[in-house]
Each structure stands twice: as C-alpha cells, then as structure tokens.
Amino acid sequence: MSNCRRSPDGRCTTDVQSMAWQRYVLIVILRVILYTLREQALELTYRINEKGEFVRRTFTPAEVLGLLRKDRFKFVDLQFTDVPGRFKHVSLPTEMMNEEMFSEGVAKLDGSSVKGFVEIQESDMLLVPDSTTFGVIPWMGDEVKTARLICDVRAGYGRGRFSRDPRYVAQTAEQKIREAGFTDSLWGPEVEFFVFDSATWEANDPFASGFRITSKESANEARGTNFPIRFKDGYYPAQPVDTLSDYRSVCVNYLRDGFGVLSNAHHHEVATAGQCEIDVYRDELVTMADSTMTYKFVTKNVATRMGLIATTMPKPIFGDNAVGMHVHSSLWKGERNAFFDPADPYAELSQAARYYIGGIMSHSRALTAIVDPTTNSYHRLVPGYEAPVYIAWSKMNRSANVRIPAYEKGSEGAKRVEFRTPDPSCNPYLAFAAITAAGLDGIRKKTDPGDPVDEDIYKLTPERRRDLNVGELPGSLKEAVECLQGDSTFLDGIFPKDLLEVMVELEMEAYRSVAARPHPYEFYLYFDL
Question: What is the 3-state secondary structure (H, E, C) of 56-94?
Fold first, then answer.
C-alpha cells in the first residue's frame, strides 16, 4: 500500500519524507554546533571582551599561514567580485600558499573572462589576498576543508591596482571620507531575500516563455500539511507558519562562526513565499561590503544544501512586496557621531547630517542606476508595496526614500541616515561608494534637503506632492541610466570614467534584451486585437 497522501493540488506528500527533512535540518544544525565548538579558538573577525564589547581582530599574512597549517586546511578559496556584483573564486591547495602572495598577488586571473573587467588583449591580472578577510567555509567537510580570503584585483605586468575593481572603488570612497575630515563611517544594510522550494524558467525559446516558483509558504499552495502565508501578511509569524526559522539560524551561525560576520537578529519579512531578512551588525564601509557579499554567499549555499533556492532578485512575485536593501550609514570623528546633535528638536540630527541627506536626495535619481541596477529593480519601485517611490526625507516615515530611524531618543551611537532606495541585486562595493559620494557632495556644497515630509506620501495627491517639493524616482532602468549620464560629476574621484561607461553599457544591454522579448502578460492584454 502506498504511503502517499494527496494534497488538494494533487501533490504527493509522505510522513517518511517529512521525517527525513526534519532529520536533515537537525543534522545541519548539529554540524554547526559541533563546528563552533571545534573552531571557537579561531576568534575570527570579532571577539567579545570581558565587558561584553565586540573587539575587532585582524589577521596578518603570517597568522593566516599559521592557521592554515595548524587547523589542517586543504584549500584556500580566493574570492573577488565582478562589476555586476557576482562573487567569483579560484581554489588553491594550501601548500601553494606563501607570504609573498599577500603582497605580490596570485597570477591566476584572466580578466577578459570577468564581466566588466578588460578586453582579451589586456587580460593578465593578479589576485591579492587580504589577510584580514580570513574565514572558514563551514559546510566544506574535513577532506576538503577550505578557508577563504577576499582579494583585491591588480593589473598584470606591474600596472598597479585595477581601477574597475569594485573593492578598489569602495576603498577609494573610504579614503575620501577621511579626506573630508571624518575618521571613519559605519554601515548597516538590511539585506532581504527570498527562499523558495524551487524556481524554474524558460527564457530563450522563441515560442515559449515563463517562470514558476514553488514555496510551502506560498499563498497559492495549500498542500494539506502547510500554513500558506497571505499576501503582505508574512511579517514576524511564529513557527510553523514561518518555515525558514531554522534555515536562518543556520545562516547566522555560519556567518558568525565561519566568517566573523555578526547578526543582530533574523526574521521573516512581509511577503509570502519565503521572504527573509538577517540583520548584520554595523561595520566600516569596505568591511561591510565584504560582509554583504559573504551574506549572499552563505544564504545561497545553505539554501542549496537544504534543497531550497535563495535569491536577491528584487521582485520575483507579482502582487506582493519585493526585497530591498535599506542602507544605514553614519560618519564619525573619533568616538563622536558626526550625525548626532542633541539640540536638534526634530530628530537630534546635526547640520552635517542634513547636508549629507541633501546630497543623497539631490542625486537620488542618478543613484538608482547604481543601487537598483536591474530591469527587475523597477518592478519593486512602484507604489503600494512599501518600496520608496518618492524623493523626500523624514523621521520614522517609511514612505520617504531617506528616513531617520527614531526608535531611541538621546542615543548618539544609534543616530544614522537610512537610504531606502537600494535593492540587494546591487554590487555593495559600488552602492556604498556611490552613496558616500552623494553624501559627501551634499556636505561639501551644503545642500539643504528642505523640510521633512511627515505624511504618508503614497496617499498624497500630485498637487500636494508638488507643494512639498517631493520628487519621483525613475520608473525604468533606461530612465535611471539616463539620469546617471546627466548627473555623474558627484562621483568624480571615486568612480573612474571607464567604470561608469562599462556599467552603463551592461545595464543598457540588459534593458534592450528584456525590452526586445514578448512578455506573457502581453498575450493576456493584446492577443485578441
């Protein structure tokens, strides 16, 4: 007799499969716990001192080589990021690693095969490992035990740093912050993502096109053994409605114990079908960009190993919220937050912070080409789904694209500016650098952001928005690129001209590719004409 039970949609589910799945999740969690106990002496990026404070730990090349030997690593993954923002890697046996590589580089990169880098006639490049990014890939077994190092990219034959390396652009932005009179900056992106049971698509058949997403949480999938989440009703549900709590916990453990990336919290987000968020503890610009890439790396790998699929594609589901990446930032002078002014009655905000906001607002339309760099990004930037459509600033108001979080009063350390426009399909190195450029431009020019808008902007009439000087973000990638082409001088000194040209070329190529193809919904609208 079959032990198959049929759900209303005809799917077959079994108690055996359910028990196997539960065992698998338990095994994964136990592996993380055991790994933590085994590796706790590594003390990765942070350690906690006797006062309970997070203290940064850095590694020298000699310390990295010592750890590779001491803990019997078999391989080292050298990771770097291409211009669109995808992680790349090459794996070296540990016996091939030496201290000279950390200064001279590893001659293992054909730059002409990396999107956005160089042409074939100038393809020889080097990867220079940054010893401070040392981490452990936790899901690799002892037989292939693997460490990782994030790399800078250098042009071959002694030509120095590669100007289009996204990490180099972020490092340049950090230098500009210091040149502007600040000692450092702190960044905290809220990276949202979806986790599905499966996602399939057909895009290259001229006679068929479409996609299908399945999720045990989907509002459209009542399988008889699940609790579907209604559209826009997925915020903070408890288990068993939230089916991904264990998954996110495993991700948090791996981020902390493998890579030293700390999490404040994790939770289910508003949308149906597996919208997740793991909040990462604030850090400096380049380190946070490294951590954001690591975050994507971990969340996708853990999902794959659990038989799931994770994505930061902004808007995979029509009719529900998309995933965003609200970016929090603040500038500091030593131990003092340059954005904090307790005498300001509105939001305890300094004049420098107001100018920083003014810079971001004045360049918001151009910034979208960098912080929302895909055609799919503009399915997110529409009214009705909590995504910012309008250019305004406010305290607490989530309908403005620049917000001042106001959970606490009188907290200098918590004072920050939240830029709500970005989505997680962006390259974090380039996104954080561009936000920095806009903010510093505002400080340099003393750009007044105008009065805050403390109304629900989505509900305002066009006339009222005009009265309040509320602008509007671009409605398509093409429009965003045109805005960037007309307003890019604020990026001078941080973004090389040739990088901007490559970014525009890649984005317009994607726009034209999508625009040239018939869309399934067009058949619904027009087939009977």
Answer: ECCCCHHHHHHHHHHCCCCEEEEEEECCCCCEEEEEEEH
What is the tally of helices (H) and strands (E) in the chain? 14, 22
Contact between 423 and 325 under an 8 Å Cβ cutoff? The reply is yes
Per-residue pLDDT, 387 = 87
Phi/psi of residue 78, each to 5°? -95, 115
Task: Output the pTM of the full model.
Answer: 0.91
Both tokens of residue 138?
């936790």
Pure H helices in 363-427? 364-371, 377-380
Spell out a b/e string for 1-27, using b for 16 or more CB atoms within 10 Å of the CB, else e.
eeeeeeeeeeeebeeeeeeeeeeeeee
Q: What angle do CA 196, 198, 201 make, to 5 degrees?
A: 120
Q: What is the tens place of the pLDDT at every residue in 486-507? A: 999 999 999 999 999 999 999 9
Residues with active-site annotation: 110, 190, 192, 269, 277, 326, 398, 418, 420
What is the C-alpha separation between 202 and 188, in angstroms, rounded?
Answer: 36
- Which sign, positive or negative, has the C-alpha torsion 267, 270, 276, 279? negative
Nearest-10 crossing angle of helices 364-371, 428-445: 160
Q: Of 4, 298, 327, which is closest to residue 137 (Cα–Cα)?
A: 298
Q: Which residue has the tokens 């987000």?
A: 269
Question: What local confidence, expressed as pLDDT, does residue 46 receive?
Answer: 67
With a cut of 50, which residues of the chain have pLDDT below it? 1-17, 19-20, 23, 26-27, 29-43
- Residues 358 and 329: their CA atoms lie apart, in Å, by 14
How far, in Å, CA of 165 to CA of 126, rounded?
Answer: 11
pLDDT at site 383: 82
Integer-rounded Cα radius of gyration of the chain: 24
Using an 8 Å Cβ cutoff, are 298 and 374 in contact?
no
Give the per-residue pLDDT at 53.
75
* pLDDT given at position 30: 40
CB neighbour burial string for 239-262, b if at least 16 within 10 angstroms, e if fewer = eebbbbbbbbbbbbbbbbbbbbbb
